[in-house]
């Protein structure tokens, strides 16, 4: 009886949070796009979907599943989900490209102004999404990351994670306790401006912080794994530390690499010049310097310093053109959306052409609130 009362009270708190988000005045909140990367989660993906739908009942939403090359039948289950609901979208990769690529693909398809991410293994509780959204709006944040304070993971995962989070705090200056929590909410401006590749999904809060976005944190419920197998491995932390060095460099010197390499080069060259100046004084004083290793060191430092400055100049040129020629870090074999059968959409859009030849016809589409004109760009 006591447990039933507690469960009822929790359900009521969830409903109140949902109402406070869904009825927010001023049009700031129009709905939430939930992006869920999936890799071999056939055991639990249907339960995950049911929990998300229950948690967001009454809140405008869409759910975008990104199948990162699953081989256990997850893709077939996702096809049944997309056939049942117009609010479900599925993106399937040709092979496993990693979580960062999966998130990047999902972010590129969202249609609401707020985005949530979570893992598909049932450890993240989707009932926390309304609470994270509430914090984001109340405190005028751009990103709110979950904090698994009471983490339901084995010791061999918790200890490296604490070390990893502490190191990331120190190097990035972002005071979060849990960078790697999959449960986060964002404004769409964040996901549009943050570029993900490699293992950079762990550092989305740091990337957002470096771009001037306001980042916060909220304690969330964490549960034991509900199915599937853990993708944890020590090599992930090794790769993550290399990516962390990239993040620090990109955050501080992405727009001005010459400041870093030029500064290092000038410092090294200065030492070399000082050594050579000292040896020059000795030479004029009548001492022999031709057989001194210090002479070789001084000349070598000057050469290395000049090379470092030159490298900085080249990096400066590359930084100005790199993003113009970049390509998405994934390859999509198929994309499905449940809204494809909606009668209120333009026929060419329903048939899978998001940009019909010649554009949409002029006029209004009352059920969607869309108005088109030939003069619009």
Task: Describe what this molecule looks like in 3D.
Belongs to the glycosyltransferase 2 family. Pfam families: Glycos_transf_2 (PF00535). Residues 1-19 have a biased composition (Basic and acidic residues). GO terms for molecular function: undecaprenyl-phosphate 4-deoxy-4-formamido-L-arabinose transferase activity. A hairpin with a 4-residue loop joins strand 9 (363-365) and strand 10 (370-372). Helix 1 packs across helix 5, helix 6 (155-172) packs parallel to helix 9 and helix 10 (257-284) runs antiparallel to helix 11 (293-321). This protein is of the alpha/beta class and 377 residues long. The protein contains 12 helices and 10 strands. It starts with a helix and ends in a 5-residue tail after the last strand. It has an 8-stranded mixed sheet with strand order 7-5-6-4-1-2-3-8, sandwiched between helices. The protein has a two-stranded antiparallel sheet with strand order 9-10. It is 46% helix and 13% strand. It has 3 domains: 2-253, Alpha-Beta Complex (Spore Coat Polysaccharide Biosynthesis Protein SpsA, Chain A); 257-323; 342-372, no CATH class.
What is the global morphology? elongated
Radius of gyration (Å): 27 Å
Given as residue ranges, the uncertain stretches (5+ residues, pLDDT < 50) are: 354-377
What gap, in angstroms, lies between the N and C termini? 61 Å
Strand content: 5-15%
CATH topology name of the largest domain, in short, is Spore Coat Polysaccharide Biosynthesis Protein SpsA, Chain A
CATH class descriptor name of the largest domain: Alpha Beta
Helix content: 40-55%
What is the H/E string? HEHEHEHEHEHEHHEHHHEHEE
What is the topology, as strand order, of the major beta sheet?
Answer: 7-5-6-4-1-2-3-8
Pfam families: Glycos_transf_2 (PF00535)
GO molecular function: undecaprenyl-phosphate 4-deoxy-4-formamido-L-arabinose transferase activity
InterPro entries: FHA_dom (IPR000253), Glyco_trans_2-like (IPR001173), Glycosyltransferase_2 (IPR050256), Nucleotide-diphossugar_trans (IPR029044)
Family: Belongs to the glycosyltransferase 2 family.
């Amino acid at each position: 009886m006591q447990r039933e009362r507690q469960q009822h009270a929790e359900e009521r708190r969830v409903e109140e949070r949902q109402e406070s988000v869904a009825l927010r005045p001023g049009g700031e909140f129009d709905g939430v796009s939930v992006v869920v990367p999936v890799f071999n989660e056939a055991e639990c993906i249907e339960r995950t979907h049911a929990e998300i739908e229950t948690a967001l009942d009454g809140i405008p939403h869409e759910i975008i599943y990104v199948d990162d090359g699953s081989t256990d039948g997850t893709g077939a289950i996702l096809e049944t989900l997309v056939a049942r609901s117009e609010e479900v979208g599925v993106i399937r990769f040709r092979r496993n490209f990693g979580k960062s690529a999966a998130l990047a693909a999902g972010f590129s398809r969202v249609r609401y102004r707020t985005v949530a991410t979570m893992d598909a293994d049932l450890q993240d509780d989707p009932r926390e999404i309304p609470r994270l959204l509430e914090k984001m709006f109340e405190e005028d944040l751009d990103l709110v990351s979950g904090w698994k304070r009471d983490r339901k993971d084995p010791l061999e995962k918790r200890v490296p994670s604490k070390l990893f989070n502490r190191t990331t705090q120190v190097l990035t200056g972002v005071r979060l306790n849990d960078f790697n929590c999959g449960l986060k909410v964002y404004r769409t401006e964040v996901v549009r401006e943050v570029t993900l590749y490699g293992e950079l999904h762990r550092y989305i809060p740091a990337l957002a912080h470096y771009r001037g976005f306001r980042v916060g944190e909220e304690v969330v419920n964490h549960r034991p794994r509900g199915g599937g197998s853990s993708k944890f491995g020590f090599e992930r932390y090794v790769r993550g530390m290399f990516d962390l060095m990239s993040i620090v460099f990109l955050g501080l010197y992405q727009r001005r690499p010459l400041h870093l390499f030029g500064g290092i080069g000038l410092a090294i060259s200065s030492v070399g010049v000082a050594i050579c100046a000292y040896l020059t004084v000795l030479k004029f004083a009548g001492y022999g310097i031709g057989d001194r290793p210090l002479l070789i060191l001084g000349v070598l430092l000057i050469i290395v310093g000049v090379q470092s400055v030159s490298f900085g100049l080249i990096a400066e040129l590359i930084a100005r053109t790199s993003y113009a020629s970049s390509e998405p870090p994934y390859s999509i074999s198929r994309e499905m959306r449940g809204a494809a059968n909606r009668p209120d959409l333009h026929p060419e859009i329903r048939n899978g052409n998001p940009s019909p030849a010649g554009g949409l016809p002029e006029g209004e589409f009352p059920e969607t609130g869309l108005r088109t004109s030939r003069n619009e760009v």
